[in-house]
Each structure stands twice: as C-alpha cells, then as structure tokens.
Amino acid sequence: MSYAFTPLPPSRRDARTTAPLGAIAGNWRGEMTLDGTGERVPFTLLRDHSHNAAVAGRFLFFSTKDVAPTGMKLLEAANATFVALVGPYYCPRENADVLTVFEGTRSGETIEGSFYTRVQNWRNTLRSGHFSATRADSTTRAA
Q: For residue 96, what are the CA distances in angstroms to 7, 66, 99, 118, 125?
C-alpha cells in the first residue's frame, strides 16, 4: 500500500513584508478629514493578534463610531510607505458595502496619507481625503 502526500505550500510570510508589517502593526488612533466638506471622522486601527496573517488575511482592524471593527489588509509595504485595503464593510451612510483604500507613510510613531472610499464593485469614488494617526499607548489602563 502506498500513500501520496501533498506538501504544504510555503508560508506567505517573507522578509519583504514582515519588516514593514511589524513597523505599522499596533494600535493607532487617528482622524480622517474628508475633501470638500472638511468633516473629521475619528478612527482606530487595532492590532490583529493572529499569528499567521496569511490565513487571517488581515493585519489590523479598522473601526469608527459608525463602522464595526473590519479587517484591514496590507496590499503593498516598504520601509516607510504602505497601501492597505479596508473591507468590504457595511456603510450606513451609503446603505451599501464599501471598500476604503489607505495610501500612507510612516515616520516614527505617526502614519499619514490619503484615502478613498468606493462602493464595492463600483469605480466611482464616494469620499476621499487625508488621514493621520499616532501609535496609541500600549499599556493597559484600569477602568
């Protein structure tokens, strides 16, 4: 009797994405400023504690007061720049599933850049603007 074993594929983690991922992983608090209106929307990026981002498909969770924590995927990363995709997630303002793309840079404990939001499977941009965030204190605080 013989058995055929299918080898497991290599891990998607490699040195090209692990270092930049580590540089922006963490807890961040920031604000998005919408073009045109100047409306400011606070947001939080929360660290994903999964040990294998290749399986989880996300490295942070994005949330606002109107958006439940939603997975954020790293699309591109270098030492100081990144492109990340949030969603799809339900947007009560649009009554539809949307995607948001963040294109930014990291300098020390700050990330900043631009973003745009589109309805899933549509090309038209609903909202765009700029964002900035700082790494949140990682110490646990008593309630």
A: 41, 13, 10, 10, 13
84-139 pLDDT, tens digit per residue, is 999 999 988 889 999 999 999 999 899 999 999 999 888 889 999 999 999 986 55
**How many whole angstroms separate alpha carbon 97 and alpha carbon 141?**
35
Tokens of residue 135, six digits? 């790494």
Distances (CA, A) of 105 to 20, 22, 31, 102: 11, 14, 15, 10
Q: What is the pLDDT of residue 4?
A: 43
Q: Are 105 and 80 in contact (CB under 8 A)?
A: yes
Block residue for tokens 């631009």: 114
Q: Which amino acid belongs to residue 52?
A: N
- Residues with Cβ within 8 Å of 23's Cβ and at least 6 positions away in sequence, in order, are 79, 106
